[in-house]
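To whoever is on call:

I kicked off a structure prediction for a single chain this morning and the downstream step that reads the tokens threw a length-mismatch warning. I double-checked the sequence; it's 435 residues and nothing unusual in it as far as I can see. Pasting both halves so you can look.
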Amino acid sequence: MRRALTSAVVAAALALAVTACGGDSGGDSGGAGSAPAGSAAPAEVSGTVTWWDTSDATTEGPVFQELIKDFEAKYPKIKVEYVNVPFADARDKFKTAAQSGSGAPDVLRTDVGWVAEFASLGYLAPLDGTAAVDKPEEFLPVPAASGKYNGKTYGVPQVTDTLGLLYNKKLLKKAGYDEPPATMADLKKAALDVKSKTGAGGLALNVDAYFLLPFIYGEGGDFVDVPNKKITISSPQSVAGVKIVEDLITSGAAVKPALQDSYTNAETAFKDGKVAMIFNGPWSNADNLGGKVFKDDPDNFGVAPVPAGSAKAGAPLGGHDYTVYAGSKNLDASYLFVQFMDSAESQAKIAGKLGLLPTRQPAYSASEATANPKIAQWQKPMESAVERPWIPEAASLFQPLVEGYQKLAGGQTTTEPMLKDVATAYQGILKGWSL
């Protein structure tokens, strides 16, 4: 069931005032996919753990590799084989390897939307009672929920995120704005004013289904209604949200979207000062701050909640979980690796160096995290985050929508017929669900 990530939960963590508590939950595994037997002492565990990291290889990967060195120093009998797998390829690559029983990693950095699917297929080891699920009371409830399936834990939350409106303060100021737009109507006006008064583009869109969700949520729409098993992507509310995007494109408020590699094109245009605004998440902090117009002037980089539609301001809850392959031959070592990489100390280091949002409450008050001002800056956007449906089919819902969005952005279709086609495709994915 989809529910809002409440302000109270996120603000409690992001106010940086929560005290850590709780103890370790030990235990080791007795076999692939089985309940842990809890025999080997951590110091005696040995083996090699292959980790597929799906983060950005340039800006994020090096920080995770630093943590691996720390882990190997703590557990000298365990070696980690680090493999950076492009995020766009990871889901299919893991499924292929897991299905064949050959080549799957011991540990995978899994998108939150993939956990239920992989668990339903039997590809993930249950983690309850293992060293991997350490101090679970520290986790923010909604990110932790992404790792659950049928009452069991199959993933522990590594980082959480959402989408915000990122903006170039100087360009908005030059166009006559001291504050970023708070509504979708204001977004269009500000983008057009930037275009006419500065010569830069107002808004760059990423033609991806995930980035379409703030517009849909803003009008009260969604992919699906899980409790009632109903497909809602073509509902009047969802149609109203996508029409906003269509209007942004046709009016010129948004620059003509690139249909191939649109994420990189939008991101590059923003950090080079060619557009004033984009929608993106905290994972892009380091990349943006290394850009032409922000590198020497980080205060020019603004973060705000996504603009509100007629119903609300809402952006998808995202993030990644650590998961362990059910067929791993090194389960004990894998559980210890996950425990170390997902500790409050490791999360604080990641937050400080990369601006990624922790999932453990105590990490927010750690000195390494508080040293990065971007962590607190994402408090408001996170209060608008909307939990996605944790169903096995969730990840499959994006492809039909992104294909439709590409046709819409390319002028090959309009909103209503596009969403009708997407809803039909969903009927083939969600067996027995109604429109």
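Update from on-call: the warning came from a stale cache, not from the record. Cleared it. Sanity check on the structure: Residues 1-38 have pLDDT under 50 and may be disordered.
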